[in-house]
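task queued by scheduler; priority normal; single chain, no ligands, no partner chains; default sampling; output format set to structure tokens
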Amino acid sequence: MTDLTKLLPYSLQNDPFTVALTEAFEIQNTQLYDEFRAISNLYLLKDAPSLLVDFLAFEKHVDFYEGLTLEEKKNVVRNALHVHRKKGTKFALLRVFELLNLQGHIEEWFEYGGDPYYFKARIDVSDKGVDDNTIRLLERLIKTYKNNRSWLEVLDIILTSKRNKVYIGTATLTGEEIVVYPYTVTNLSTNAKINVAAANTANVERLTLYPKGGN
């Protein structure tokens, strides 16, 4: 881009404030130009930051977006218009699987003798792995891009190990619980000398004899 300070009148090229203001404007203008250039050409998504990809996904009405890596998001945004035009077809389903680095195969009811308007989907997730989020994503993709009159009968998920050797490790954890109660004394015996004091009190009976006939 052109150095804006060189476009200033000669009388202002030596003014520090005007030169500083022009240089600051040029920096902002350059950044804005780079952002516009990235937005105007979707093929620059390879260098686009995550926030810009999010804006483009909203603009292109991407039907699924959560749970994807940044590269997968860029793929679906870049191909959003083309997939929308084929939405509701077998081609759209297979194309979406391809954008997510999945190998998919669709078999319609008349190809395997099933009930009308049913189909089977077989998806190889060996390069991606599988968990609950992956299964929910596949179900959502199929529901979004299939035609409304078709129904998923079977979803086969293939997970193949490409290693020649598979190592499996196991571990066993055991333990013993011991309860120690306080010591309790039993069977007590003792030897002791006991002194017992006793007292006996008796009433005294008094007998008085008077002379005969006397008072």
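post-processing summary
- The CA atoms of residues 95 and 208 lie 143 Å apart.
- The first strand starts at residue 103 and ends at 108.
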